[in-house]
Design goal:
- Helix content is about 20%, strand content about 25%.
- The chain is of the alpha+beta class.
- It has two domains: about 190 residues, D-amino Acid Aminotransferase, Chain A, domain 1 (2-Layer Sandwich), CATH 3.30.470.10; about 190 residues, D-amino Acid Aminotransferase, Chain A, domain 2.
- The strands form two sheets. Strands 1, 2, 3, 4, 5, 6, 7, 8, 9 and 19 form a ten-stranded mixed beta sheet that branches. It has a six-stranded mixed barrel with strand order 10-11-12-13-16-17, surrounded by four helices.
Length: about 400
């Protein structure tokens, strides 16, 4: 029995007859109400991340007595919430970022969606939001994607971005966990996150900290993002695209992306390095996929364009900006790139630190051999053109 249910029953003097209802996608529970008028889908060349939302959304509500309401797929519309809701007062907001792609057979596909569901469950638990069945939520997402199939771009580098969100709706100013919630899913067609093909430039930031040991950096919470906006504006004024978040001189994340460096070893092989998941870094699905594919080269697969005689050694280890500068001076730092759902893989051109720039090797097309091989292989898998460990999941399954 849920703790919130017991507390509510005691507070109201009510006997609890049954456990709150679970999130349920049975035909008898899920309702689908389609819009009578559909929007025009913009040309792929005009798509900007997050600006055009699709026709429909999925919504379900939770209260501590009845549990989850019957989920509904309905026309996209504003939500109605109490001004005292926990999400507005105490930032009890959790979201995920996923993408749908159209496979060669015309079937919409998701990329490792089980990982997104696991992370969303973990993040919701961190801010004590009501639990939900991740398998049922994934079924709802698949149904919504099928309803909005016409919105999935067919141009390479484009996709349908999916934003599952859960917000606390307890209508009280009391400082406590929210025992009520709204779960919803919205979607938007999108092109490349960075419109320019050039590498991104990062400003290393020490005076503003994105996340700290024991904090919430390892969870996908809305409260992690707002404090980064002001430093990002400052970085932009100095000519940088994103902030490189530091703890002291230790690297954590690049903007909202995971950070990677490729370093040449004495034996000619390559080290592919990324900071460890120490609680200050979001466990990215693209990060995990990058490590897996690099570790598999060349034994299980060969990354496109990469010499199969070169072995990649992956390592999750502490990285500092002075280390990067030293490797660059020695000519051993071959590539720096960042990865994430929105960008997939993007090259880093220079890093500003302590008034100076660390300039990184440049390559035709911006990405180096490792980054390019990863981008090509990841997009092949995401679009269902290459099978790999069941990472690409059809929405009709």
């Amino acid at each position: 029995m849920a703790i919130s249910q017991v507390q509510n029953g005691v507070a109201n003097g009510d006997a609890v007859a049954a456990a709150p209802a679970e999130l349920d996608t049975q035909a008898s529970k899920l309702t689908i109400n389609l819009a009578t008028q559909l929007k025009d889908v913009p040309p792929a060349a005009e798509l900007k991340f997050g600006q055009v939302l699709t026709d429909h959304m999925m919504v379900a509500h939770y209260d501590p007595i009845h549990g989850w309401s019957a989920p509904e797929i309905k026309p996209y519309a504003p939500l109605s919430i109490d001004p005292a809701s926990s999400c507005l007062q105490y930032a009890t907001n959790v979201f995920e970022g996923m993408k749908a792609y159209l496979g060669p057979d015309g079937t919409p596909r998701l990329f490792r969606p089980d990982k997104n569901m696991q992370r969303m469950e973990m993040s919701a638990g961190r801010v004590a939001l009501p639990p939900f069945d991740t398998n049922e939520l994934l079924k709802l997402i698949k149904k919504l994607v099928m309803v909005e199939k016409r919105w999935i771009p067919t141009v390479k580098g484009h996709s349908l971005y999916i934003r599952p969100t859960i917000i606390g709706t307890r209508s009280s100013l009391g400082v406590a966990a929210s025992d009520s919630a709204t779960l919803y899913v919205i979607m938007c067609p999108t092109g490349p996150y960075f419109r320019s093909p050039r590498p991104v430039n990062l400003l290393a930031v020490q005076e503003h900290v994105r996340a700290w040991p024991g904090g919430t950096g390892g969870y996908k919470l809305a409260l992690n993002y707002a404090p980064t906006f002001k430093p990002q504006q400052y970085a932009a004024k100095l000519g940088y695209d994103q902030c490189l978040w530091l703890l002291g001189d230790k690297i954590t994340e690049a903007g909202a992306m995971n950070f990677f460096a490729v370093v040449r070893r004495d034996d000619g092989d390559l080290d592919v390095l990324t900071p460890p998941l120490d609680g200050t870094i979001l466990p990215g699905i693209t990060r995990d996929s990058t490590l897996a594919l690099c570790a598999a080269h060349p034994s299980r697969t060969t990354l496109p364009g990469l010499d199969p005689s070169i072995r990649l050694h992956t390592s999750e280890r502490e990285l500092t900006v002075p280390q990067l500068a030293a490797w660059a001076d020695e000519g051993r730092l071959l590539e720096v790139f960042s990865v994430g759902t929105a960008v997939v893989v993007v090259a880093v051109g220079r890093i500003g630190f302590d008034g100076k720039d660390i300039t990184l090797p440049s390559y035709e097309g911006s990405l180096g051999p490792v980054g390019r091989g990863l981008y090509d292989r990841l997009t092949e898998i995401q679009e269902g053109r290459t099978e790999w460990d069941n990472w690409s999941v059809p929405c009709d399954s």
